[in-house]
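Hi R.,

As promised, here are both runs. First protein below:
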Amino acid sequence: WSHMQSGRYGQLLAGFEQHKDSLKDMEDRVNGWYLAASAYQEMGDHEKAVALLRPIVVNATGSKIEDMVLYKLAVSQFELGKYDDMKAAIVRLQKEHPKSHRSADADFLLASAAARQGDRAEGGARLTEIVNAGPTHPYFGQALMQRARMFDAGNLIAPALADYTQFIAYAHSDQANANVDPKAVFASQMRVVDLQYRDTKYDKAAAGAQDILKQDKRDPLTEAEAMYRLGRAQIKLKQPEQAMASLSGLLAKYPQNRYMAEVRYYRGLLHLSQSRPDEAMVDLQAACAEPTLSKTLKINALRLVSLHQREHKQTEQAAQSMLE
């Protein structure tokens, strides 16, 4: 057990292979096979985990840790995409061990399996059952987050916003358990900003991005995205100077950020709106050179560059721009 708790999986497995044949007592054998399977599971080798756990389930019925064995088996079957086998293990777990602490884990696993298989009806229903159990349920936060992502993927803005917002409030409350990942909180805040922007709530999107930028412990990717989304919202709010500051600040601090193509494009438009055509052409041409710029934005950027070149009698360059 000490090897397992300290993450020394190799040593645990070496010890298991060395001593497994000397384990005569049933409970000792169950514990040995269970620990070895758990080590393989932690190492991502779920085939070997299942190979060790299945014999326990078949041959050691009634062991003291049978509920834990069944749950571990279900987890590896989930990871292998063997959902029918997973459900059978969970049915047995919840039928034979109704008071097991693993029952709540199994409920969340069933919800995750339904969501992974694209069954939004069943996945949503199972997640909602967990959410309705309230913050005392050990998977309340995770269920909220997963249901929000499901709504988000289905472009259901209002319910996705509601779940992300509730998750953020829960994560900052005294009721949150210690397993709430700060990265998940930042990710939820960012999704709220994006969804509010898509819902034309540009003032709320800008405020949300600014709130993220004020927080400590944000990672560079989070900060870069917040600066980008703030700039986009400020454009919609007709705040060109603030938007220029946000986008230019992003380029200055993170010159290789993932939004570089869009930042150069929108900054080019801002330069045009403020009668700075030369600066605009530099940004628009730079945006067009980026392979990540969408076709729609690239076509518009090339059109603007071509118009500028024609106005300055740069006929050949204008023709070339339209051909790109």
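And here is the second one, sequence first, then its structure tokens:
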Amino acid sequence: EGDEGARELGLAALDWLEYRYETAEERLESLSGPDTPNDALKAFALLTRGEAAQLQGKYARARDLFDQALSVAKEAGSRRAQTWSHIRLAGVRGRLEGMAGARDHLLAADTLLEQGDLYLRSLFHCSRAGADPLGRMDALEDLETGAGLALEAGVRRLYAGCLGVQASLALRSGNTGDALDLFHEAQEIQASVGDRAGRAGTLQRAGYVFVSLGSYGLAQSYLEQAIREGEASGSFSAVAWAYMNLSTISWGLGDLASARTYADRAEAMMREQGDVAGLDVITGQKGDIAFAAGNFSGAREWLEAALIRYRERGAAGGEFGAQSALMRLSLAQGDLE
């Protein structure tokens, strides 16, 4: 009350939560334009703009806004805005540049966290658990801490996000049943609090699990729901990955024309978003589709491109997958050397 700038920031945050991005952007631009003072209010306005861009899959744009927010926060002496900026930069740089891009920001955030800030402490621990770029091998401890803090703070949207990270870790450990249970719990919470954007991502990842299990009917149902939620909320990263998973289903069913259509759609969206990790995967997938169609020269071109991309990012798992696919291709061509 009495602070017009803070009021505008609060209204913009409400617009953002209800997916009125254009209205939110107009409010936030008035608080963070080049002629506005470099104070904490401007830093938080830039952070909110960055979060909206990140949610929509505009990762390069989000990185630039978070970089600006960090610079302004340092000048303004806002420790909380600096911490928040570092956490968000870890997320988008990890997506754009690989986990090495997240490391320094997580270390910086760790030194700035304040004990009484339950929200940021929860966000930090769950974000670090999802990235784990330092090889600390204590992701589960991070998750337990982060989820507990989210509940203590009463932020169910954040708690659901922590459950999603826990589900992803369960998948990496081969605990598919646990992962699906956690995804189900997360999406139920997200539905209850109106987090359609978060739910889109959760449904997409659950759909991916069903694809990997060969349960194509269930997978398609989840992925189509993810697309509807993502399109309604502007969460276009989830939409792009859902299309890629639908491509995998079509490929598995032998419908190569649909597989190519979905893959092209996913690639176009990921290229626009600057989703490097997604483009790595879709490049290899296009090689697999070409291989299945008997287009061996095209398959080799796509798979070799995927191998180069994975090597450049230091993604050992992806590199191994591309090498294995190239080996199968050579065997199919009768090249045993």
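A quick note on the second one: The chain has a mean pLDDT of 91. Let me know what you think.

Best,
J.
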